[in-house]
Amino acid sequence: MQMNLTSKLPEVGTTIFTVMSALAQKHNAVNLSQGFPDFDGHNRLKALVSAHIEKGDNQYAPMAGLLALRETLSWKLEDQHGYGYNPESEICITAGATQAIFTAILALVHPGDEVIIIEPAYDCYAPAIKLAGGQVIRVPFDMVLRDLDTRALDEAISSKTRMIIINSPHNPSGHVISGLSMKWLEKRLEKSDIRILSDEVYEHIIFDGAQHESVIRYPGLRERSMMVSSFGKTFHTTGWKMGYCVAPTSIMNEFKKVHQFNVFCVNRPIQHALATFMKEDIGYKKLNAFYQQKRDFFCDVIKPSRFKIRPSAGTYFQVLDYSEISQDKDMDYAVKLTKEKGLASIPVSAFYAQAPEQYLLRFCFAKNEDTLIKAAEILNRL
Ligand SMILES: Cc1ncc(COP(=O)(O)O)c(C=O)c1O
Questions:
Q1: What pLDDT, on a 0 to 100 scale, did the predictor assign at position 14?
Q2: What does the DSSP 8-state code read for residue 198?
Q3: Looking at the whole model, is its pTM more than 0.90?
Q4: Using an 8 Å Cβ cutoff, are 65 and 266 in contact?
Q5: C-alpha span between 252 and 157 (Å, rounded)
Q6: Residue 345: pLDDT above 80?
Q7: Neighbour-count burial of 190, counting CB atoms closer than 10 A to its CB (0-12 exposed, 13-18 middle, 19+ buried)
Q8: For a Cys-Cys bond, which of 133, 233, 275, 295 suits 69, CB 3.0-4.6 Å?
Q9: CATH code 3.90.1150.10 for 16-41+285-379
Q10: Does the structural domain 43-282 have CATH classification 3.40.640.10?
């Protein structure tokens, strides 16, 4: 019998990251598409995970996460931004930033609410908003000024706006939101109930001495925000899918109501390991320099190419403009580049509902120099 199945997300297909990574594998292409390093996490961190598994730390963790890890995070955020969240009531450990984002949206967005996202936008925001019954309002990022378009944002805010989702350093553009824009946002939302979901997974990957302008640094934003981040990005362990969310207690209480039924708790041995490792090794403070060196290396080796290069201000992505090489649509060009030249990237149009006319591909430079050189050899011949 043919049964009816009405999709809740009819317009959603397989994510571009899965599509391009599969294509890269099929054509044995150099894969600068999906955002993950081709080098491994720290040996000490891996040894700690193994030790905790051997020791028998293999049963459920507390719902919000191990207190030891929440305490370490509180200390880290205090050190980083001058504000330490209460480990008992304001921090929750999640299965990657993705689960934190999904849980945050489900917890706060009611049917009919408007949620503003800044386009180009990471692909998990809009589906989560729709599943919560919310309406997605898209505001463009200012790709010329490389900052929030505060005028467009101002116009988009309405009496129905429940939440604004910001992301800095920004995937895919590599731009960062300025302190000036954060101050503007703080003032603009002063008398409203609007919440912020701040996706800061690249908080430790910001270049040229810039300050990471977290919502945590702005009291008027902090009191209305859920900040999410990812241990995967910071410790080169994206496959572990470990992240966290911090928020004031009243918001966190709502977050946890969803979290406890969404996943209840996350990987215990890894939480033990992270709590110890982050106390022993503050190497994440050097991540900016580590990735800046990779950005500079990549931009340098592709200098002879015909791509237009504006070096990223943060993240481990570099967007390149191929308008002088081809006028193909970016999806077509990305597929062609993978199949015919052996290099996979992500078309930036995948981050829009309706992309403007532009010729942009995103390349992940979280790779060993050998991989980046191989990619450059292809790019420089185009
Ligand atoms: C902007 C942004 N947010 C969230 C995520 C998801 O992070 P995680 O792998 O910890 O779920 C990513 C991963 O690429 C990302 O780029």
A1: 84
A2: E
A3: yes
A4: yes
A5: 24
A6: yes
A7: exposed
A8: 275
A9: yes
A10: yes
Q: How far, in Å, is the centroid of ligand 1 from the Cα of 55?
A: 31
274 lines ligand 1 (CB under 6 A): no
pLDDT band at 261 (very low <50, low <70, confident <90, very high): very high
Atom of ligand 1 nearest to the CA of 229: 10
> Chain centroid to CA 173: how far?
12
Q: Which atom of ligand 1 is nearest to the CA of 315?
A: 16
Q: Is the pLDDT of residue 17 over 90?
A: no
Identify the CA nearest to 358 among candidates 347, 367, 373.
347
State the average pLDDT for the chain: 96
Residue type at 152 in one-letter notation: A
- Tens of pLDDT, residue by residue over 199-232, are 999 999 999 999 999 999 999 999 999 999 999 9
CATH 3.40.640.10 residue window(s) in the chain: 43-282
Q: Give yes or no for a contact between 38 and 240, defined as CB atoms under 8 angstroms apart.
A: no
Any ligand 1 atom below 6 A from CB of 96: yes
| Cβ of residue 120 lying under 6 Å from some atom of ligand 1 | no
**Token duo for residue 380:** 């420089």
Q: Which two tokens stand for residue 103?
A: 């849980």
**Taking residues 368-377, what's their average pLDDT?**
97
pLDDT at 127 over 90: yes
Q: Is the CB of 31 under 6 A from ligand 1?
A: no
Which residue from 350, 369, 253 is spatially nearest to 21, judged by alpha carbons? 350
Pocket perturbation via mutation, ligand 1, pick of 21, 123, 204, 230 by most ligand atoms within 8 A of CB: 230
148: helix, strand or coil: strand
